[in-house]
Amino acid sequence: xxxxxxxxxxxxxxxxxxxxxxxxxxxxxxxxxxxxxxxxxxxxxxxxxxxxxxxxxxxxxxxxxxxxxxxxxxxxxxxxxxxxxxxxxxxxxxxxxxxxxxxxxxxxxxxxxxxxxxxxxxxxxxxxxxxxxxxxxxxxxxxxxxxxxxxxxxxxxxxxxxxxxxxxxxxxx
Length: 173
What we know:
Number of helices: 6
Radius of gyration: 28 Å
Shape: elongated
Largest sheet: none
Number of strands: 0
Order of helices and strands: HHHHHH
């Protein structure tokens, strides 16, 4: 059996890293008063937007365990409410592709812009493979309507042991 690569998981990790790089590049661009420092402000805002959208991990297609990030459930609920706009990886491909262009107009944001471009290419592969974002941890767990407490008391003496053929004088039958 051949396992397939889940491209969306790679793209998600790449997008989170790209957002941190974009935010830090934007801070450097604004604090350093680079020429075109306004694009540094754009980098900070775009990085925060990408982080909000990409922070919640999607459910894995194969396997049955996906590790959630800390405090991801509120953002998962938000993304789950947006419907196909946030679930479809074609939309994320286009969004990251559009966001990466203005980020490349200033040197401080160039690395973040290139990372977003790579993220968009990975999302394109995931979209062509038919992958889709599914929220983790929002599944409703069905509980049994009848819950019985089954507790057993610990035995106080060992169970009887059979020691071969019954002897004379044994009262075993």
